Amino acid sequence: MRSDPGLQFWLQAEGSLTARLRQFGPVQVQVQRQGHMALWVPEQQDVRQRGGYVREVVLLLNGRPAVWARSVTSMAASRGPWRALQGLGTRPLAELLFAARPVARAPLRLQQLQPSGAMQSHIRRQWLQLAQRSPQEGVPQWARSSVFWHRGHALRVMEAFSPWVGALAF
Predict the structure, then answer these.
(1) Partner residues linked to 60 by β-bridges
(2) C-alpha dihedral over 154, 150, 95, 20, to 10 degrees?
(3) What is the mean pLDDT of each run of 10 residues along the chain (170 residues)?
(4) Fewer Cβ neighbours under 10 Å: the N or C end of the chain?
């Protein structure tokens, strides 16, 4: 199954997602949780650890939840090359990834979230908590991920898109 063409554009877009979203209005970062946590299997494979430092956020566009994102790295990297991740607060990760530092990015990987999967269940739970504070138009069904490398240490970023984001035209 393929996502709609509009959402496909967002799933495959290179560069800063935050910068692209800002073309349609103000973007706010709402931190959902962060700290040392167990990693999901795909994350374990990418950062070669069972647990690590995790930061989960929701990007709000014009006050509406648009993107749920999860960034993970090893605990060693969170105290080393990726230590700035812990201090981002409500600033976007793009400030860290697309600054002048030497960061390499692996190719994007697209995935449809499985309704009964651990990731989809986790995202759905957080998304429904947001629904109590703002209107929703659907839980994310599609996501993308990639791994960023800085001084030999991986930072895996996964972004799941609200269905309404696909309607934003370029």
Answers:
(1) 28, 65
(2) -70
(3) 77 90 95 95 94 96 93 96 93 83 89 83 83 65 93 95 85
(4) N
Residue 137 to residue 161: CA distance in whole angstroms: 11
Counting the structural domains of the chain, the total is 1
User: Which residues neighbour 111 within 8 Å (Cβ) at sequence distance 6 or greater?
Assistant: 142, 143, 144, 145
Name the residue range of residue 59's domain: 5-167
pLDDT of residue 90: 94
Backbone angles phi, psi at 62, to 5 degrees: 55, 35
CA distance 10 to 143: 10
Q: Is 5 left (phi over 0), alpha (psi -120 to 50) or beta?
A: alpha
Query: What pTM was estimated for this model as a whole?
Result: 0.91
pLDDT at 141: 87
DSSP-assigned letter for residue 40: P
* CATH code of the domain in which 131 resides: 3.40.1410.10
The strand pairing partners of 73, in sequence order, are 53, 155
